[in-house]
Amino acid sequence: MAAQPPATPAATAISPAFEQALDDADGGDVFALERHGTTSADARLSAIANARIAAARLRAKDAIALARPVADDEDAPPAHRARAFAVLADAAFTAGDYADAATAADGWLDALNRTRAPQSERDDAQRLGALARALSTAPKQRMHSLVPAPAATRRDKVGLSRADATVNGHVQEAVLDTGAGLSVVSQRTATRLGLRMLDAAATIDSASRDAVPTRIGIAERFAFAGLELRDVAFLVLDDRQLELPVPGGYTIDAIIGFPVLREFRRLRFERSGALVPQAPVHAEATTENLRIVASALYVDAKLRDVPVALHLDTGGPRSSLSSRFAARHPHFADGLPQQDERMAGAGGATTRRVARIADAALDLAGRRAMLPELTIVTKDGEDVQAQNFGLLGGDVLDQFDSWTLDFDAMTFELGAPR
């Protein structure tokens, strides 16, 4: 008598709302997952949900402890393992543990291949793995000293905040960009600053979704606002990738990104033009309204009482809502005239379909910002897929005397309205 294979257990029914909350968390809206709750009929998904929340709160060790058993469980569904590996890769990369991030990205890609996931998802895993492997060949960034000192900032012709840093003994003007997962320099700037170039190469996504080739350069010494670091990693892009089509010409030579700014723990940006590092504040009554996913910062906000997690992007002068938000809340664009808009960035440009919401009231951090108009993307350009629900830009931040990031308390704070 032939042996019979063991019966396959019936698939555990997963709540569509819970599945959506998990997807939203991957797009930066971890707040939606927290509001929904992490209890599920599937214990593995509950662990993944709690791991995602821990990673977004910069509790990497907790995130890894929760996600690792699911990722390593060969009996778990490949889709569950893909989610677990994605959280592991995110937590490790954000913590600067690039070798672990590369290993997790490889597991993520393998699990995605088993589920026959869309090619765009597999490309994301592959690119993260390649970038993490390139970074893993360099010494880890470390703090030499921190004696907080205010730094003067200034606005450039497109409204971006710039300040002077010292790199390998050379003064370098740089854009301050909380939306940058890594710091960036042009090739000519890397040469002038004497960055040590790594042999490994990688690619990153661009505004047009085209892959942008990049190399990694290491600054042995870096100083800014009283912070001194060693072995700071920079993405090194071709000079043309940082030249944007602005009348009269516009070039960015350097960008200071999240891995550097995070070292301050608490940092206040003043509208008057000062960047002020501060001592962390330990207040039990403080409401956590800041989360970090894939090294990108997200702030809990509301538009007409509809919650939305906005990507805090000081490199973007204007706030906007993405096609992902428009698909979830189509009534915001109903009846509004729509038009094509050209969007340019590193690697190229894309044309998207947009509408404008007039007199938009945005509530965040206990304050209200009023925007004469707020762009909502109703259709992305070709080969572009919205990664989050929207951007929080300078048009909101400039309505207040200051704004503050606290990476210990996980808070985003706004000063007095202007």
If you had to describe this structure to a student in words, what would you say it looks like?
With 418 residues, this protein is α+β, with helices and mostly antiparallel strands. Strands 4-5-12-6-9-8 form a six-stranded mixed beta barrel. Mean pLDDT is 90; it is low at 1-11. Helices cover 28% and strands 35% of the residues. It has three domains: 16-136; 142-277, Acid Proteases (Cathepsin D, subunit A, domain 1), CATH 2.40.70.10; 290-414, Beta Barrel (Cathepsin D, subunit A, domain 1).
Features:
Cathepsin D, subunit A, domain 1, Retroviral-like aspartic protease family protein, Peptidase_aspartic_dom_sf, 11 helices, six-stranded mixed β-barrel, disordered N terminus, about 425 residues, alpha+beta, 3 domains, 24 strands
Strand content: 35-45%
User: What do the pLDDT scores average to?
Assistant: 90
CATH superfamily heading of the largest domain: Acid Proteases
Side-by-side strand order of the widest sheet: 4-5-12-6-9-8
Instruction: Count up the helices.
Output: 11
Characterize the overall form: globular
> What is the terminal separation in angstroms?
83 Å
Counted up, domains total 3
Organism: Lysobacter auxotrophicus
InterPro entries: Peptidase_aspartic_dom_sf (IPR021109)
Protein name: Retroviral-like aspartic protease family protein
